[in-house]
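Dear colleague,

Following up on yesterday's call, I've attached the two folding results inline so they're easy to grep. Please treat them as preliminary; we haven't cross-checked anything against experimental data yet. The first protein's sequence and structure tokens come first.
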Amino acid sequence: MPASERQNQLLEVAMSAFSRRGFKGTTTKEIAAAAGVTEAVIFQHFPSKEALYSAVLDLHLDAGDEAKWIEEIEKLMEDNEDEAVFRSFASRILRSYRLDPELERVILFAALEGHEQGMARLQKQFAPIFERFMGYVARRQREGGLIDCNPHAIMVGLGGAAHQYGLITQIFRAPAANVPDEEMAQLFTRILLHGVQANPSRQDADEERKPAGKSKRKAKK
């Protein structure tokens, strides 16, 4: 097998192993056996298990369309398209779980194991993107387009819903709602922006505006 093909084979076999047993639970001997080679062949291509793990992350994290996606997001942000911005964020997360559940398992293992190398690579990949969204939320809050609260809470609320859905359906293999990812992302976005109440009554709205003292006195009566 040509060197490039062998290297790609080792990366895919290693990805499968790391996704099932994590970094600590996987040995290069096991990877070699699964690939049908000796450990020496692995070390001809990668100087250490850490280097192999890093190459696996680089291969799966470097999505070819990320630059295009960020460009599209920035255009939506310039136009203050709140719903489209949030929907794209949630959709991207759901897409990752759907297309590459092994990567999501490796990420989960890295967090559970406290693997510094893995977490540093993930931080490098995702932190700038998350900060970009946080900056957008903060700006829209200053402009009065979004409620005044911690921007982190807004992004974690949306991202948490998408991650949880992906985790349940793609990792835990629980039955999924028969809904396309784009539609599910839209639902999560709608809930984030508008809540789940159909029509809050005027009385409920009035109660929320009353000072706390008045509400308590009314309750005592």
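Below is the second protein, in the same order (sequence, then structure):
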Amino acid sequence: MKRILIKDLVPGLVSGVEVQMPGAGPLYQENYFEWTPSSLVAKLQTHEVSGGVLRAWHHTAIFREVETHSDAEMFFFVSGVSLMLFMDIHQGQPVPETAQVVRILPGTQIVITENKAHFVPLAEGDIPVEIIVVAPKMAAPRMTLPVEIEGIR
């Protein structure tokens, strides 16, 4: 098993993942609402785009597989503190030496570029994670890792 120190996600930490931190976007307010648009833009390869709500619960931060996609995905972290695995792919195989497990706070928005290996976020604590995901219609092929990855504090 490969043990990796969990790091707080910040812009520039994970190659292939663009990050907008909570409160980093412009804020527009009126008397009963506020709007914080994302400054992140995903360059998608198709016009068939959908979204959904991903919910995840607390789980041990041990990862045995990753998935990749042929196009970008946008994640909007709504609630709960997430832990998420990222790693590079080389010649169609995951590269465990590039693995990073990051802590993602609610309010964070990310764009994961095509072919960036990752896996479904899990909740770090007892508060479930809720994430809005926007992505093109595409497959999500999974790959078993040659070694388990454990995120440690």
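For the second protein, one point worth flagging: The mean pLDDT is 93.

Best wishes,
A.L.
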